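Hi everyone, sorry if this is the wrong subforum. Our group has a chain we'd like a structural model of before ordering constructs, and none of us has done structure prediction before. Sequence below.
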Amino acid sequence: MKTAYELAMERLNKTAPAHKLTDEQRKELAELDSQYAAKIAEREIALKTELGRTAGDFAKQQTLREQMAAERRKLQAELEEKKERVRSREG
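Answer:
Right subforum, don't worry. Here is the predicted structure as tokens:
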């Protein structure tokens, strides 16, 4: 008996067969992950430092937290876009 996950994966592969990645594509994807993890960490460190300087100013702290979340989402979206370009290239 197949699990719900296995059945869903079968249906998914029928509609959009899995694309095999080349070694070079895997390497590029890993490099992108590494680069963007570093970018995200760098921004978070800078914003956390700024957050520490605003002790007691709750409005400013909330603004910085929102900025940190927005920048993280933006960088994650950039990363996914670049990864999708790598994946869609013919190997």
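For your construct planning: The two ends are 36 Å apart (CA to CA). Residues 23-88 form one domain.
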